[in-house]
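User: I'm new to structure prediction. If I give you an amino acid sequence, what do you actually give back? Let's try with this one:
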Amino acid sequence: MAEQALEQEIKEDKVGIKEKPKKEKQERIGILNIYTTFNNTVINLTDMSGKSIAKFSGGQSTKQDRLKANPTIAMFISQKIAEEARDNGITGFYVKVRAKTGQANPGPGTHAAIKSLTRAGFKILSIMDTTRIPRGGPKKKGGRRGRRP
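Assistant: Good question. You get back a string of structure tokens that encode the predicted 3D arrangement of the chain. For your 149 residues, that looks like this:
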């Protein structure tokens, strides 16, 4: 009898306590466009509709032309982008990497920028290469027999 009474009291105590529902953080996703050449790095952050939120380039971090494409400068640029993304509540990125048209691989700042953003705590959902590829193009200069010395 005594055991049943204790069990009933415990059940009544549990019923009286209400747990607060936990608020789930809403994930906002952005698109990160990284354009790297061997002379400069430009990173543009947009929302999913394509509206630009922040844009930074190597020239805004350094005034020396030879350093604009440097991986270290790309890290500084991505830290500025990370601050802007946090201010806007963005938690993850779709990354679009683009190199100069016709080049096989992007510039030196691409890998450093993506790595810096993952270290800052952002989720990289996908990385896509959007480099443009020439397909023939216009007729080259020089005529039918080509350029002669």
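You can read the tokens as a compact description of the fold. Here is one thing that stands out. The chain has a mean pLDDT of 87.
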